[in-house]
Design goal:
The structure holds 2 protein chains of 2 kinds. Chain A is mostly helical. Chain A has a domain of about 220 residues. Helix content of chain A is about 80%, strand content about 0%. A two-stranded antiparallel ribbon of chain A has the order 1-2. In chain A, strand 1 and strand 2 form a beta hairpin. The two termini of chain A are about 30 Å apart. Chain B is mainly alpha-helical. Chain B has a single domain, classed as Helix Hairpins (Orthogonal Bundle). Helix content of chain B is about 75%, strand content about 0%. Chain B has 3 helices and no strands. In chain B, helix 1 runs antiparallel to helix 2 and helix 2 runs antiparallel to helix 3. Chain B starts with a helix and ends in a 13-residue tail after the last helix. Classes of the chains: A mainly alpha, B mainly alpha. At the A-B interface, helix 6, helix 7 and helix 10 of A face helix 1, helix 2 and helix 3 of B.
């Protein structure tokens, strides 16, 4: 029973997915209840996680393959919140689409349980299964829309994702071959014990792991799919991909690299690789975002650029004074702040695009007169993405760049700050269109309660953590501290 | 000359590189999928080899891993074929060069 209790948050989410499918099949006239069942499942999952926090009795289950610790608890809350916001933001779109409502919510919840398992897995097999459990529903969701561009996005995402997960698997196989085990902790011990005898194989394995997860994290040079899939996939699904699967990929990369590949002679290598990837990723993302005219493509490139910012935290492992989890806690804090911010942006885009029937930035002109609420929410979240106070995005950038400077990566921080200036240019372009542009159509846009609620929560989160970032920072520090023992 | 671990690993590595080459060069979506399947089977061969020649007290782990990889690969192929059919219905082609509606 212990294992079921430890995996309770995931089981609650999967159970809700099952209930949704049953309700959809047996009482089709009650379809409008489906999103509420999804929200109840997520709430039960969050309550179950809270009960573990209250018990303060962190433990592993299933032979040590699944770990309930501060790190996974942090991500359980994050993923439950992200999925709840995505469900709220999907309601209008799913109702309008009409078909397969039960399957849509069931797939979103299944992907959510995969993301949760991914953040808690401490074994390569578990991590692989969790990765696919979250990816396969997302492939289907990306191809969910009726138009041909959506199926094209789904197929592209799947083909590239399958190649990436094969590369990842080969890396895992090499890691297993060198160490004879798939448990992360034992891999770490074996590598520390045997020294750099197998260094060359380990470097190859590490490269393959970075390539495989780099696809999910949307890091250059594995970012080609991002703008295409964001543009073609239904907007709520694009929001889910941009926040959920990116956060889970960074979670599992942090865990694998700190716990299994944390030996000094390896961490010097991969922190250098991450530093270079960070600089290239944010530069490519920002430069390409400038020339985009479609807001979903622009957000795709902007999310690539943000992935570059997260990588600064992973590169900053060699912080002076032995505080080598400072960078990792920066990644966690940034991921949480980014989740609120980017979801807010996507929710506003969902609401506006649905009404005006276009994703072109120039069609957003004069939106301030048509819907002050959506315009203000969107503008505020874009300000946070740029990293200007008083927003959560400002503290996240400050925190992660501070970790970079303390790890002697001043050049990378300079690149990061310059990139923030570049990003201000294209985010500002959208804000200018919203407030100063003129549009022929001046009918007011009415926001549905679900969209209003999710945008309100996102903007409130960005604002509150922009004024009082300390609770979130200390939660992120506690979560990253589990890697400090060795 | 007896056949040892290095022979199996070499075959696995070659098969993996060939699969990657197929996946990256094929223009037909189904062809890309076949390349991916080849890469996955190369990984399976590598895992089985490491498991067979393992000196750890739990050499079975590699074989367990393979069972999971096979299962997941089947699930992934099912979804891939469904999406390919969906694209084919709309566009009358699964040529990845001609599936190009998404661009800036």
């Amino acid at each position: 029973m212990n294992g079921i209790d430890v995996a309770g948050p995931q089981i609650a989410v999967l159970g809700a997915a099952g209930v949704i499918l049953l309700v959809d099949a047996l009482v089709p006239q009650q379809r409008r209840l489906l999103p509420f069942i999804a929200l109840i499942g997520l709430a039960v999952s969050a309550l179950w996680t809270i009960s573990w926090v209250a018990r303060d009795d962190y433990q592993t289950a299933f032979g040590g393959t699944l770990s309930l610790d501060h790190f996974s608890v942090f991500f359980y809350f994050l993923f439950a919140g992200i999925t709840a916001m995505v469900v709220l933001a999907s309601i209008d779109w799913v109702n309008r689409e009409g078909r397969g409502q039960g399957e849509y919510y069931a797939l979103v919840l299944t992907a959510c349980s995969g993301l949760m398992f991914l953040s808690a897995g401490r074994d390569l097999i578990t991590i692989f299964i969790a990765l696919e459990l979250s990816s396969i529903p997302q492939y289907v969701l990306a191809g969910w829309g009726k138009d041909v561009r959506s199926s094209e996005a789904g197929l592209k995402y799947l083909l590239l994702g399958a190649i990436a997960s094969s590369l990842l698997l080969y890396g895992m196989a090499l890691l297993y071959g060198v160490t004879g085990t798939t448990m992360l902790a034992e891999i770490g011990e074996t590598i520390a014990w045997s020294g750099d005898a197998n260094r060359s194989v380990l470097v190859v394995a590490m490269t393959l792991l970075i390539a495989g997860f780099g696809f999910k994290m949307a890091v250059v040079p594995f970012q080609m799919w991002v703008p295409d899939v964001y543009q073609g996939a239904p907007t709520p699904v694009a929001a889910y991909l941009s926040v959920g699967s990116k956060a889970a990929a960074f979670a599992v990369v942090t865990r694998i690299f700190f716990e299994a590949l944390g030996a000094r002679f390896l961490s010097d290598d991969w922190s250098n690789v991450f530093a270079v990837l960070a600089a290239v990723t944010m530069t490519v993302g920002n430069v390409m975002a400038i020339v985009q005219t479609d807001i979903k493509r622009m957000l795709g490139y902007s999310s690539i650029a943000q992935a570059g910012n997260f990588l600064v935290g992973l590169a900053a492992i060699s912080v002076a004074g032995g505080e080598f989890t400072l960078g990792a806690s920066g990644v966690l804090f940034f991921l949480a702040a980014y989740a609120f911010t980017n979801l807010g942006v996507f929710v506003a885009v969902i609401a506006i695009s649905q009404k005006i029937g276009s994703d072109q930035i120039r069609d957003y002109a004069g939106m301030w007169k048509r819907s002050p609420f959506l315009s203000l929410g969107l503008a505020f979240c874009l300000v946070s993405l740029t990293g200007i106070p008083p927003t959560a995005g400002f503290w996240a950038k400050l925190y992660i760049f501070n970790a970079g400077i303390r790890a002697d990566l001043t050049w990378l921080v300079v690149v990061g700050v310059l990139n923030s200036l570049v990003s201000a240019y294209y985010y500002w372009g959208v804000i200018r269109q919203l407030f100063t542009g003129a549009s022929e159509d001046s009918t007011a846009i009415r926001t549905s309660p679900s969209i209003g609620l999710s945008l309100g929560v996102a903007a409130a989160g960005v604002f509150v953590f922009g004024i009082l970032p300390m609770p979130l920072i200390s939660a992120a520090r506690d979560a990253a501290a589990i890697f400090a023992q060795h | 000359m007896s056949i040892g671990i290095e022979h199996f690993l070499t075959v696995g590595a070659l098969l993996f590189c060939l699969g990657l080459l197929v996946a990256l060069s094929k223009r037909n979506a189904i062809g890309v999928l076949m390349g991916v399947e080849m890469m996955l089977n190369a990984v399976n061969l590598t895992l089985i080899t490491f498991s067979r020649f393992s000196t750890s007290e739990r050499p079975i782990t590699g074989q367990v891993f393979v069972v999971f990889v096979i299962t997941v690969a089947a699930a992934e192929a099912a979804v891939a074929l469904a999406l390919a059919v969906s694209v084919y219905r709309n566009r009358d082609t699964v040529d990845v060069d001609r599936i190009n509606l998404l661009k800036s």
